[in-house]
Amino acid sequence: MKFFADTAEIDEIAELNALGMVDGVTTNPSLIMKSGRDIIEVTREIAAMIDGPVSAEVVATDADTMLTEGRKLAAIAPNIAIKVPLTWDGLKACKRLTGEGHMVNVTLCFSANQALLAAKAGATFISPFIGRLDDINIDGMELIADIRTIYDNYGLETQILAASIRSANHMKEAALIGADVATAPPSVIRKMADHVLTDKGLEGFLKDWEKTGQTIS
Ligand code: E4P
């Protein structure tokens, strides 16, 4: 499973990237707002740093303006994936933009039917939002599993990009189901390294080591 960093914070992306933990980046208007940066500038910086798709989202709601915005975002760098919302207009924009050779990430997906439509419209990525479904007591992971089954049934090549990931457990579940990509905040990716027995074991080893009076140097 590929890891995308769900953030527009340059320092956090750079830290993960140095460890080889980032296969791409996703941003959205809220994350751009949080970064306090200009969308074009920060997207250009991220795209130059990352060897993989960097999603930048349109904010228009009609297909024609989405096309104009999408082309402007795609001109930033060759590895930009244009993010469009899963609306009828978004699907129209998706079809046109992928037809022009751009990568398109169809976002705000909350149902298997929406994901089926996005694949028919040629989406490069479909972004089902797990956490936001969990928030309203619908099992987000079940949606990832349903989309996996449907895409596999028909050999649809759109990549499933599990989004709105809130925990390290979400990462594991998405990987078990076979999501192609998971996009997560850097804090969640770091959390995947945590285990209480690792901490406990290390504490024990270090205590015993101290008793030996030795040093390694
Ligand atoms: C995906 O591309 C979105 O940027 C993101 O995963 C949304 O997550 P949230 O529900 O935590 O805002």
How would you describe this protein?
- With 217 residues, the protein is of the alpha/beta class.
- It has one domain (2-212): Aldolase class I (TIM Barrel).
- 53% of the residues lie in helices and 17% in strands.
- It has eleven helices and eight strands.
- It has helices spanning 10-18, 29-35, 39-49, 63-74, 88-99, 112-120, 130-135, 140-154, 168-177, 186-191, 196-212, and strands spanning 2-6, 24-26, 54-57, 80-85, 103-109, 125-128, 159-162, 181-184.
- The chain is globular and about 70 Å long.
- It binds erythose-4-phosphate.
- Residues 6, 26, 28, 107, 127, 129, 131-132, 163-164, 183 line the site of erythose-4-phosphate (E4P).
List the helices and strands and how they pair.
Layout: E1 2-6, H1 10-18, E2 24-26, H2 29-35, H3 39-49, E3 54-57, H4 63-74, E4 80-85, H5 88-99, E5 103-109, H6 112-120, E6 125-128, H7 130-135, H8 140-154, E7 159-162, H9 168-177, E8 181-184, H10 186-191, H11 196-212
Parallel strand pairs: 1-2, 1-8, 2-3, 3-4, 4-5, 5-6, 6-7, 7-8
Helix pairs in contact: 1-3, 4-5, 6-8, 8-9
This protein binds erythose-4-phosphate.
Short description:
With 217 residues, this protein is an alpha/beta fold. It has helices spanning 10-18, 29-35, 39-49, 63-74, 88-99, 112-120, 130-135, 140-154, 168-177, 186-191, 196-212; strands at residues 2-6, 24-26, 54-57, 80-85, 103-109, 125-128, 159-162, 181-184. The chain has a single domain (2-212), classed as Aldolase class I (TIM Barrel), CATH 3.20.20.70.
